[in-house]
Each structure stands twice: as C-alpha cells, then as structure tokens.
User: Which sequence fits this backbone?
C-alpha cells in the first residue's frame, strides 16, 4: 500500500516585521574646537554697530558656520544699517537688503531663481540665509516669514532677538519681554514697562512643520555655530531664534553682553532647545536654575521691576518663565523618547 | 586730520560715476573706516598668561582680534585700528589676562 | 521718423498671416506671452481682474509647459519682493496685480525701481477701494506713476500680448534696468475674448533669450545691494533712475522696430489717428482709445475735423511724440480714467499740458474724467465732449474746470 502523503503544507512564513520608521540618524555637529573654525572673516571690522553689540557677535559667529557660497538677505535692522552705509560695506559675501518686512519673501524668490538657474548652468549653487532682527521677523515680517516657511523653500532664517526695535531707538516689539522698559512701553505712574508677554516666535515657526527650528544664544558659541550649520544643511526651511543682548537698549556695560546672554539661559528666561521634525530636545537643561531676578537686575531696562512696589511684576515674570519652561519640558516629553523622565 | 575731516575731503562721486542703485562692489570696504577712534579704553593681552584658548577671538564683535597661526608666542593679536573698547574680550577671558586701560 | 517701404509693409503682412490666431482674453494673452518669454521666476498672488493670469500660469506650470518657478506668495507685497530677490540673483521675473494689490506693494515698487530690478508686471487696472469696486479704471497705476516704473497701456488683447513681450526687452537693457508695468483695463481688456495673433515659441525664444545680468548676487564677486544712502548720495542714485528713463525713451524706436521685424506689427509710443488735418483731438489711454476712434469717425461723418491720440507709452512720458502729434490742433479733450483729488487737473491732463506748455502756441485744453469704477463711456459722450471743446476753442477759451463724462450730477 502506497501511502501518498500529501505534501506537508508549506510552512507558514513568519509574520513580516511591522515596518517601523528608520531611527533618526544621530546628528554629528561639525564643530568641536574653536581652532577648527575658518580664519577668514566674512563680516569684517569697520561696521558701525555699538561697542559690545550682541547682534554683531551673532553675525560674526553665523558667518563662521557657512559651508560654501552663501548669499545673505538682510532685513532693515541694526545690523543692516550699520554694516552698509554707502560706500562702506562690512560684508565679504553677496548681500542684499530690500525692505523691512519682506526679507523672507525676497529670499524665497532668490532661492527658487538660483535653483532654476543652476539647473540651466547659468548660476552657481549657493545657500541663501535670511537675517532679521526681532522687528523684521517677529512683527512686521511675520507674514513673509509664515509664507516662506509654509512654502518650504530651502532657506536658513536667523532672527537675532535684541528684544526691541533697537535700530530706531529702542521701541518695543512683539519680542520685548514682559515688564521691559522701552521708549514705547515706558515706565511711569500708570504703567511699568511692557504689559504683554513676548511672542513665542520659535513656537510659531515650529507650527509650520519645518524640518529644523532652534533657539540659541551668543554665549554658547559651539551650540550656536553648530545650529547655524545644521540649519543651512537641512533641506527645507530652518529657523533660528538667537538671543543677542543689546547694551544700549538693555542698559548695561558693553563688556557684559556675553554674561547677560549666559544668565538668560541660566535663569531659564531664554530656553535653549531645538525641534527636529517635530521632536523637541532641550539643549541646555539648567540643572541649578537661578531665580529670574538674577538676570533682570543686570539690566537697567528692568530697574523698576526690582522696586518693592513692583514685586507683583517680578512674580509675574518668574511665573511666566516657569510656565514657559514647563511647557517646553512637556513638549519634549511628549515628542522625544530620549527625554529624561523627571 | 580727524576721520570726519578725512571723509569730507574724499571726493563724492557724480550720478554718472557711482554704481547704479548704490551697489557696493568692493567687499568689506568698511575696513577703510577705522572704528578704533571710537574707544575710550584699550585692551592689552598679557601673553605670559594667555592659554591660547581663542575665546576672546570668537567673541569679539568687530572682529578686531586676529588669529596668528603658526606663531609660537602669540595665538591672537588685537588690531587696535578697529577696537571699540567694549571690554568683552577682557570679560570672557577664562584666565583674565586681558586688561582694559583707560585711553 | 522713418517711412515704411512697400516691401517692408508686404513683409509685415506676410509675417502676420503666418501667425496662429487664438481666441484669448487680455489676461490669457498676457499669460501666453509670459509663458513664452523665458521667465525664471513667477510670483503669483491672485486679485480680480488679474486672476486669470495667475491661474493660467499655474495650469502651464502644472503641465510642465513652462520652465519658470511658480511661487504662490502670501501677499502682493511678497509677490513684488519675491521678484526683487530673484532679479537680484540675475533672474527674469514676472508678476501681475491690480488695484489693492498694487497699493499694498507700493513700498516694494520703489524698492524694485531703486534696486534696478527689470521686473515685468502686468496690471489689470482696477479702481481703488474705498468703496470696494472691482471694475476697471486707471487709479491704481496712475497713483504709482512716481514709483520709478515704466508704464505702457494696452488697448486690447493683441497689445496685451505684444507689449508684454516687448516690455522684457525694454526693461532688461543694460542702460535701462528699470521695471515696467504692462497695463490692461480691468474687465474691459482683461476679460474680453478677442482674436490674438501669437508668435511661435521659437521666435519668442530667440527674441528673448534667458537673462544674463551683469550686476547680481554672485558668490564669485560679492556685491552689497541695498546699502543705506545718506544725504550725501541718495540724490545721485535717484538722478540715475531718471537718466535710465531718458535712456529708455531713447531706446523705444529700436524696441518697436525689433518687434515689428519679428511680428509684423508696428507699434509706436503714441498712436495718432486722423490728426494730420484735425482741429480737435481726443487724447486717451487704454481701451477707450478704440472707442475714441469710433467717435472720431462719427464726427468726421458730421464734417467735424476730429482726430484722436492714444498714449501707449505713459512712463517715460513721450513728450516729443505727443508734441508732434498735437502741434497743429486747435482743441484737445483729454480723457482720464482716474481722479486726482484736490489737484488742478487729473494726471494725463497735467502731462499733456506740461508738454504743450513748451510749444509756441497752446490749443484749448479741457480735462475730462470718465469711467471711474468701470462706468461705461459711450461714443456719443466722447463725440459731444470733442464738439464742446471745439466750441470753446472757437470762443478763444484756453481751458475750463474739469468736466465729467457720465456721472450723475442732479
């Protein structure tokens, strides 16, 4: 009797592994040592910015991060006016200033033109960087910024935040902190400086779903320069919000610019974090934060906040700072698996 | 002659000779304007204590601190033509070897 | 003024016979021209009555019929800014707008002309709010006449096509480098379907090769654009712009001649009609000039020696051409499709009056305002205006206060 064995059923294949998104490549910053930075100064001496100017340091560090041919579009601002009084220019790169509010729009046109002309061999590939103060990016330029971010051009947009329209004489902007004195948010009987909390411009940029957005200060050169390079390298729009203290508008001795920027981070007043494709990472964790009064007391623009009668304002500022920090911690926890649990 | 007098003496171009739209075709032409005349205090580096960390170099807003590559004694040198005397270099130096002198 | 030979006329007629005839609205014609013109960047923001232009260009882009990068900007201010940014890197740029959009980008207009960006912008001229009105009049472009832009007025869809192409040539000349507005009458020209002779793509490709700018943002030669000019230099840069306008005017015969060679259509800065023996002239810009010619014919039928002058090139102002056309007439009715509130007269009248002031004898000159907010103007109204002005000339009156055609007074 032949036993015709039915061939055994083919073994069921093991279940296909559920596809997971590839783990994001860990990013290696390009800069570790100061000595590795290029020697060439693309933002030269002889500009008319104040002594000890934070934005000047911002520009200097930013140009050190360029990776190749770069074109800068600059909004009307302290940096623009002081670096280009005809016939003097402090720039060693192609640079254009058009108007106050349209820098992101001009750069959008330029970057698309460069792309097209490169395809046809009529132009050389260049990175396009947008530079603006808090005035030209956060207030009057916010529509152009929003449009450029939404359209997804390959741009690096750097907003150097000196907390007011400093160029025209220290008038308040949407980025001026609560309680700060400016010439249009004066301190007097009825009002103690600016009565509104500052706009979260980084949050606004992130809301456009851009691949990279980060905050930085000029105090931490390694962090800032690496972020600029990363912003340039990323494909698509990148936004950097940089705290650049202004000795004239904030009322402090010019030599203290870096210390004050450092204090802004150490008091959690200015959180330094980044958002890569929606994943938040706090870059400077501040394990032993100082009370915000340590930051405020260094600057003449907050002098009134230290008065006894304005204790409510100091408390309000501290609460705001704490609330903002907690918000960012929560965002990090919600989006970043590597976030610390506590 | 003061810088202002120097500038006034410089011949201003007619509309036919100036570049159109105010474009400036000489990069970093600002170097012709010596901002060093602004300062009221001058920094000096004590090279015996300098650790060559380059921190003063990266923080100078002008920049007017030059990096000297291949120089065994000095890593940086302050170019007094442009120094505005802000004092940031003295403030950030980790070993405090930069002193600001009045004048 | 060169006389056209019989051979040249035959050649031009032959050229015209060879061309495709399409049914195009004014806006379509502009979009068609922009498609052919080797534009690098198009900044698009819609506004009635120019929407067809940006819609057609989007359709072309979506089908790959156009190589230009099409950028949907978020406002007209950004539309002009995008063009400026692109022009600064050496690209050929195009955009279109109307009324509120033109007003919104007003500061950017000065920036574009001041930075010598040869952008071409089609404007479907429309009334300015308030009150809101989407119909055609010239208030928007005439309100921007000081912005340093050149301006040409198109009478119909054919001119919209031809003048858009010629505009690139004029604007990008290295001695000119001034942006230019190509003005269509909102709805009247922009939305009316007409027969348009279009040139073959290869002909336009040769006429308008890709732009090769000399001064631009180039990493090999870093240039700083948009420097701050203090009182010691600003005046010179503005004088340069006026010098460019003069150069542009000097260049117009060459531009029109080159265009006539490729298209068979011979344009000029102004279009005189039956002015050789005219006693009264009707001066206008845009589509009304067509109506004016009908009025002239109707007047001639009634033995009135009338003629008309269509101003095609508005900025730079073709003074010599206007003076030559009007030097023998006794009376001039200037029809303006815009108001200039509180002014001694409206814009076109002031330009005409300035030109005629230099003549040894001035005709009777009367200012008429018509057609605001798209109000129709009829042949009868224009004829009556011409007759009234001729009557005033016979009474030896030099001028009278501004008159209005078609507004309800009682």
Assistant:
């Amino acid at each position: 009797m032949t036993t015709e064995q039915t061939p055994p059923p083919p073994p069921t294949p093991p279940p296909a592994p559920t596809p997971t998104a590839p783990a994001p490549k860990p990013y290696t910053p390009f800069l570790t040592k100061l000595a590795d930075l290029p020697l060439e100064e693309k933002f030269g001496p002889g500009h008319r910015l104040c002594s000890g100017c934070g934005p000047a340091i911002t520009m200097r560090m930013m140009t050190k991060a360029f990776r190749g041919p770069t074109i800068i579009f600059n909004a009307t601002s302290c940096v623009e006016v002081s670096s280009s009084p005809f016939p003097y220019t402090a720039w060693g790169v192609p640079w254009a200033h058009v108007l106050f509010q349209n820098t992101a729009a001009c750069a959008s046109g330029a970057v698309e033109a460069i792309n097209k002309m490169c395809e046809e061999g009529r132009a050389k590939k260049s990175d396009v960087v947008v530079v603006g103060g808090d005035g030209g990016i956060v207030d009057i330029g916010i529509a152009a910024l929003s449009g450029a971010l939404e359209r997804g051009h390959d741009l690096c947009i750097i907003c150097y935040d000196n907390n007011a329209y400093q160029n025209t004489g220290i008038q308040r902007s949407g980025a001026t902190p609560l309680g700060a004195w400016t010439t249009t948010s004066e301190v007097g009987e009825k009002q103690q400086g600016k009565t509104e909390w500052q706009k979260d411009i980084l949050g606004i940029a992130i809301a456009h779903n851009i691949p990279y957005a980060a905050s930085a200060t000029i105090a931490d050169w390694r962090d800032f320069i690496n972020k600029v390079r990363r912003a340039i390298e990323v494909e698509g729009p990148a936004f950097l919000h940089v705290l650049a203290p202004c000795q004239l508008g904030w009322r402090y001795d010019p030599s203290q610019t870096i210390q004050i920027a450092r204090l802004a981070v150490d008091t959690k007043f200015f959180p330094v974090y980044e958002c890569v494709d929606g994943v938040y990472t706090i870059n400077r964790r501040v394990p032993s934060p100082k009370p915000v009064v340590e930051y405020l007391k260094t600057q003449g623009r907050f002098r009134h906040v230290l008065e006894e009668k304005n204790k409510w304002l100091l408390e309000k500022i501290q609460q705001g700072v704490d609330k903002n920090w907690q918000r960012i911690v929560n965002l990090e926890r919600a989006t970043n698996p590597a976030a610390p649990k506590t | 002659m003061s810088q202002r007098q120097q500038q006034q003496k410089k011949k201003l171009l007619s509309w036919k000779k100036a570049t159109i739209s105010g474009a400036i075709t000489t990069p970093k032409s600002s170097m012709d304007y010596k901002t060093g005349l602004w300062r009221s205090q001058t920094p000096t580096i004590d090279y015996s204590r300098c650790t060559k960390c380059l921190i003063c170099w990266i923080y100078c807003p002008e920049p007017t601190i030059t990096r000297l590559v291949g120089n065994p004694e000095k890593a940086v040198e302050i170019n007094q033509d442009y120094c505005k005397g802000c004092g940031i270099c003295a403030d950030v130096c980790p070993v405090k070897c930069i002193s600001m002198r009045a004048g | 003024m060169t006389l056209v030979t019989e051979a040249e006329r035959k050649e031009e007629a032959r050229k015209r016979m060879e061309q495709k005839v399409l049914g195009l609205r004014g806006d379509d014609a502009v979009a068609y021209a922009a498609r052919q013109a080797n534009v690098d960047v198009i900044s698009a923001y819609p506004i009635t009555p120019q929407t067809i232009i940006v819609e057609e260009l989007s359709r072309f882009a979506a089908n790959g019929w156009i190589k230009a990068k099409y950028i949907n900007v978020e406002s007209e201010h950004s539309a002009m800014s995008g063009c400026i940014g692109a022009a600064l890197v050496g690209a050929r740029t195009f955009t279109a707008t109307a009324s509120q959009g033109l007003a919104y980008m007003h500061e950017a207009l000065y920036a574009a002309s001041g930075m010598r960006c040869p952008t071409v912008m089609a404007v479907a001229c429309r009334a300015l709010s308030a009150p809101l009105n989407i119909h055609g009049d010239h208030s928007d472009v005439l309100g921007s006449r000081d912005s340093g832009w050149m301006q040409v007025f198109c009478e119909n869809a054919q001119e919209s096509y031809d003048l858009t192409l010629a505009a690139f040539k004029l604007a990008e000349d290295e001695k000119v480098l001034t942006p230019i507005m190509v003005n269509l009458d909102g709805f009247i020209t922009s939305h009316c379907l007409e027969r348009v002779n279009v040139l073959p793509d290869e002909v336009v490709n040769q006429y308008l090769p890709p732009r090769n700018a000399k001064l631009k943002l180039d990493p090999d030669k870093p240039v700083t654009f948009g420097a701050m000019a203090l009182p010691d230099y600003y005046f010179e840069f503005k004088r340069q712009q006026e010098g460019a306008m003069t150069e542009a005017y000097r260049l117009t015969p060459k531009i029109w001649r080159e265009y006539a060679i490729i298209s068979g259509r011979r344009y000029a800065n102004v279009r005189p009609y039956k002015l050789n023996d005219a006693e009264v002239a009707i001066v206008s810009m845009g589509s009304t000039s067509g109506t004016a010619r009908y009025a002239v014919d109707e007047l001639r039928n009634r033995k009135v020696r009338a003629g008309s002058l269509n101003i095609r090139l508005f900025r730079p102002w073709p003074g010599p051409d206007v003076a030559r056309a009007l030097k023998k007439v006794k009376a001039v009715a200037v029809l303006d499709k815009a108001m200039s509130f509180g002014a001694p007269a409206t814009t076109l009248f002031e330009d005409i009056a300035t030109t005629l002031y230099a003549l040894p004898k001035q005709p009777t000159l009367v200012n008429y305002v018509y057609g605001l907010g798209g109000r129709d103007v009829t042949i009868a109204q224009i004829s009556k205006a011409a007759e009234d002005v001729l009557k005033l000339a016979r009474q030896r009156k030099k001028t009278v206060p501004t008159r209005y055609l078609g507004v309800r007074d009682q």
